[in-house]
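Support request from a user on the community tier.

User writes: "When I paste my structure tokens into the form, the page sometimes reloads and wipes my input. The last time it worked, I copied everything first. Here is what I submitted, just in case something in the input itself triggers the reload:"
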């Protein structure tokens, strides 16, 4: 399968590297970070896994989507704030039969992608893997977990089975869901509870639960998001999203959330696709979301 990774950050590199180990795959990492792409082209992609450095030299790096051309599968891994721009600027990889898979954080990516290439070509999913960049051409696989993908209408199609099998063959354990939109919301609940609060307080994930006043804000933010999901008829996987979010805090206690990393590195965050999305969806459903409104505006202010 010919595969394009649109956005070769840490997670994009992880999936690109793993998928390149399947002999019949041709994998392109597409990114605007010139030094990173040049390092991949000249030395291969270096991944640290369990303290061991592994070089993946079959993955191809490029900043020119024309070099890749139409692909069978395009995995979108850019930040949610860049989704529309990334699809538009990489139209050369999206042919009439190209399947676009979003494994991004936040809400709204599916709509942004299908607005550019059509609904029938879009599938979605979530990943529990973790990864961080170490520098140009180098990254660390920080944590393993399942990938779950599905058709937007929940059907079990030949293409979704094929992609699931391919990912699993590449060492990315993958399941198929008939409720992928619910899974996106499951992950959104966790991000709503953790990301903005860690960005504001500078706390690692687990430390949010060490401070009762911060834990109370986590509970309130997730509770609002849960109410919005129920109003929209979203079928969640967890009866207790607050408890699940706290479990994730404990399981990733030492982690710096992606939003905290963005704040520390003075980068634009995904706040508008996470807590900001709850504010927007709440307004459309008539559900008040005051805690998420405050968290969203505080992060927006910090970004300035």
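"...and here is what came back when it finally went through:"
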């Amino acid at each position: 399968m010919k595969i394009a990774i649109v956005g070769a950050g840490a997670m994009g590199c992880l999936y690109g590297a793993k998928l390149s180990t399947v002999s019949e795959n041709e994998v392109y990492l597409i990114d605007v970070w010139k030094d990173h792409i040049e390092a991949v082209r000249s030395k291969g992609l270096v991944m640290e896994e369990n303290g061991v450095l592994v070089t993946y030299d079959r993955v191809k790096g490029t900043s020119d989507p024309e070099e890749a051309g139409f692909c069978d599968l395009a995995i979108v891994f850019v930040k949610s704030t860049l989704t529309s721009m990334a699809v538009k600027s990489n139209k050369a990889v999206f042919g009439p039969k190209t399947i676009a898979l979003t494994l991004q954080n936040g809400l709204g990516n599916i709509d942004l992608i299908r607005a550019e290439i059509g609904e029938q070509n879009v599938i979605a999913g979530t990943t529990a893997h973790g990864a961080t960049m170490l520098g140009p051409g180098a990254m660390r696989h920080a944590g393993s977990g399942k990938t779950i993908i599905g058709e937007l209408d929940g059907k079990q199609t030949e293409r979704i089975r094929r992609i699931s099998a391919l990912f699993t063959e590449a060492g990315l354990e993958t399941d198929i869901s008939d409720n992928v939109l619910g899974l996106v919301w499951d992950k959104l609940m966790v991000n709503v509870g953790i990301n903005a609060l860690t960005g504001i307080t500078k706390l690692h994930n687990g430390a949010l639960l060490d401070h009762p006043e911060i834990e109370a804000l986590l509970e309130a933010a997730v509770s609002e998001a849960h109410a919005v999901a129920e109003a929209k008829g979203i079928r969640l996987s967890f009866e207790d999203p607050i408890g699940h979010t706290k479990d994730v805090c404990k399981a990733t206690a030492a982690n710096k959330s992606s939003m905290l990393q963005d704040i520390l590195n003075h980068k634009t965050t995904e706040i508008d696709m996470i807590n900001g999305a709850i504010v927007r969806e709440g307004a459309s459903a008539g559900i008040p979301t005051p805690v998420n409104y405050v968290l969203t505006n505080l992060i927006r202010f910090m970004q300035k």
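Agent notes: The reload is a front-end session timeout and is unrelated to the input. The first helix runs from residue 10 to 19. The radius of gyration is 19 Å. Escalated to web team.
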